[in-house]
Amino acid sequence: MSLVVTKNFGNPQSWTLDSYRAAGGYTALARVLREMTPEDVSDLIKASGLSGRGGAFFPTGLKWEFVRKDPKTPRYVVVNGDESEPGTYVNRYSLELDPHLMLEGMIIAAYACHATLGYVYIRGEYGLAHERTQAAIRDAYAAGFLGSGILGTSGFDFDITFRRGAGAYIVGEETALFNSLEGKRGNPRYKPPFPTNVGVWGLPTAINNVETLSAVPDIMRNGAEWFQDLGRGEAAGTKMYCLSGHVAEPGVHELPMGVTARELIYDYGGGVAGGRGLKGFKPGGASSAPLTPNELDAALEPKSMGALGTIMGTGGVVVFDETTDMVDVAYRDALFFEEESCGFCIPCREGAPNLVQICERILHGQGTMDDLELLEELGASMMASFCGLGQFAHQPVRGAARRFREDFVAHIEGRPIPAAAS
Amino acid sequence: MAIHSGAPRRATLDDAERPKLDQLRQALAPLRDEPGTTLEALYAAQDIFSYVPPEAVTLIAKELRLPESEVFGVLTFYSMFHRKPAAAYVLRVCRDLSCHLTGAPQVLHAFNQALGARVGEVTEDGLFETESVSCLGLCDLQPALMVNLEQHGPMTADKARALLDDLRARGAR
Ligand SMILES: Cc1cc2nc3c(=O)[nH]c(=O)nc-3n(C[C@H](O)[C@H](O)[C@H](O)COP(=O)(O)O)c2cc1C
Ligand code: SF4
Ligand code: FES
């Protein structure tokens, strides 16, 4: 299978400019500037089916077109490297091992958007990624891939500022990230207006995930159809999936978008750790509701996951062995959202601690069947939250209570947790 | 952010540290005219003092021409900023799902037992403190932790104790 976003990971010193250029790096940019108009670029990206890897899967080419068509200037391209969804570490690999690939994609995005300014924002904890990405930006300037008159063109100027976060999951939400870039608390903003029209500093902004941008250079080289065909069925391209939890071999795998969880866990992850049975798995980070072994053959892509009442999310798959207490899993998720709720709106600020309390009651044998009803009601009220964090926070807890109801009932009735069926 | 109970994590400068405010003023000079640099300014203060004392908040507000309340608001929003003197080695132990399932609680316990300290307490020699933190994006290294920004994992209780010996040998930086 063709690799798109991880193809250089095994090259010696893969993060350096020399290594990247030896692997053909920055030739896609050169060709784009020579042969394509900004419209050609966004049209090609639209046709490729590339959609946002940050988890919302918005069509990338369309986003760029919206930004280009907004008359306000300067326009911005922002890289979202805040990656903080529990179970997810794919952007870390890209930033540590191939920052130039992301930069080349970002510069092509700037060309397509008529953007002149950019930010790369990386979460505060990714120290090695900071070093290598900052070095990559410096080297790209020195080689003429950034700055004024890029690669000898007249009129294509693009400047990048590097910024790091300081510990806050919510800042991954795009409008919260703009606030953080502006030096403020990372609370989200109202949408609409959308970032494509009113983004960082109130100006048109294309904000994209690291992985989304890393796919761009090869799409420019090989065409839209090539990328489309890399996915399974209707899903386009490849996706970096990553495994953790009770899996034999945790790690990152770039696979066709729409690979099944069975393939990922058993063919690529070596199965459940210790050869134990599988109780369930989470398809994409803390925000995704867990699934059962009966759902192992569902495709890990947004549509099939949506049909099962969960989300594809980040592709951070977490595996649970047969001994796992799914109430405890739900509790860990609730604790995460309680900690990371930014406190700006009431349904989430009050709802997240309530989720924790209900899980605690059940875990400690003080729960009742009414608590399961209460979870559903609480979830419905949290749908009124201001941003995605609160709107998703209850889903993994409710999802666990529905699909793994026996575990919840066992706690409530004071019985041992049933062993997994498989 | 969850609101933590207990005494506010705040401490003021002692006389020996006051001259460092000049060092901070110099570090802030290049940030003054670039908009949106509050986080970088707070990092600069933390690099100098190991934490962000109230005096630094006042200075940052003055130099960046912002209300002090706004700088303080930013300081309290982000979990990586310290408001009391931090240890030379901050052991950030992940407590989220993947690490939790694979032994993070035992690792944290091993640290705290070996150090005779609770989460957030600096040891008397000033070398160590543990933090129990959200997912570090190191889940392939589960259970994972960071020593300041250095990645470690997969950890066990034994490796945790060995790590402390390593770090003691390195000494305060
Ligand atoms: C609570 C929350 C956290 C998010 N965290 C991230 C993140 O860490 N990285 C990311 O790329 N997108 C994250 N997103 C999605 C972004 O808001 C946005 O959709 C994305 O950066 C757009 O880039 P893409 O289209 O390339 O995916 C988050 C969204 C929400 C609601
Ligand atoms: S939903 Fe939660 S994270 Fe989002 S704005 Fe409301 S309190 Fe903040
Ligand atoms: S869950 Fe511990 S590093 Fe991600």
Word description of this protein:
The complex is a heterodimer of chains A (422) and B (173). Chain A is an alpha/beta fold and 422 residues long. Chain A has helices at 17-22, 27-35, 38-48, 60-69, 90-97, 99-113, 127-142, 174-181, 210-214, 216-222, 224-230, 261-268, 302-307, 326-340, 346-363, 369-382, 388-393, 395-403, 405-413, and strands at residues 76-81, 117-122, 159-164, 205-209, 238-245, 251-256, 278-282, 316-321. The model of chain A has no long low-confidence stretch (mean pLDDT 97). Chain B has helices at 20-28, 38-49, 54-64, 68-77, 97-101, 104-115, 157-170, and strands at 89-94, 128-133, 145-147, 150-152. Chain B has 173 residues and is an alpha+beta fold. Chain B contains seven helices and four strands. The interface between A and B is large, with 56 and 44 residues. Iron/sulfur cluster (SF4) binds next to helix 15 and helix 17 of chain A.
Helix content of chain B: 40-55%
| Sheet with most strands: strand arrangement of chain B | 2-1-3-4
If helices are DSSP runs of H or I spanning 4 or more residues, what is the number of helices of chain A?
19
Strand percent estimate of chain A: 5-15%
Low-confidence regions of chain B: 1-9
Highlighted features:
heterodimer, A: alpha/beta, Rossmann fold, Ubiquitin-like (UB roll), de novo design (two linked rop proteins), 19 helices, B: 173 residues, alpha+beta, 2 domains, 4-stranded mixed β-sheet, 4 strands, 10% strand, binds flavin mononucleotide, binds iron/sulfur cluster, binds FE2/S2 (inorganic) cluster
In short:
The complex is a heterodimer of chains A (422) and B (173). Chain A has 422 residues and is α/β, with parallel strands linked by helices.
Layout of SSEs?
The complex is a heterodimer of chains A (422) and B (173).
Chain A: H1 17-22, H2 27-35, H3 38-48, H4 60-69, E1 76-81, H5 90-97, H6 99-113, E2 117-122, H7 127-142, E3 159-164, H8 174-181, E4 205-209, H9 210-214, H10 216-222, H11 224-230, E5 238-245, E6 251-256, H12 261-268, E7 278-282, H13 302-307, E8 316-321, H14 326-340, H15 346-363, H16 369-382, H17 388-393, H18 395-403, H19 405-413
Parallel strand pairs in A: 1-2, 1-4, 2-3, 5-8
Antiparallel strand pairs in A: 5-6, 7-8
Helix pairs in contact in A: 2-6, 2-10, 3-4, 3-6, 3-11, 5-6, 5-7, 10-11, 14-15, 14-18, 15-16, 16-18, 18-19
Chain B: H1 20-28, H2 38-49, H3 54-64, H4 68-77, E1 89-94, H5 97-101, H6 104-115, E2 128-133, E3 145-147, E4 150-152, H7 157-170
Parallel strand pairs in B: 1-2
Antiparallel strand pairs in B: 1-3, 3-4
Helix pairs in contact in B: 1-2, 1-3, 2-3, 3-4, 6-7
The complex binds flavin mononucleotide, iron/sulfur cluster (SF4) and FE2/S2 (inorganic) cluster.
Residues 170, 188, 341-345, 348-349, 385-387, 389-390 of chain A line the site of iron/sulfur cluster.
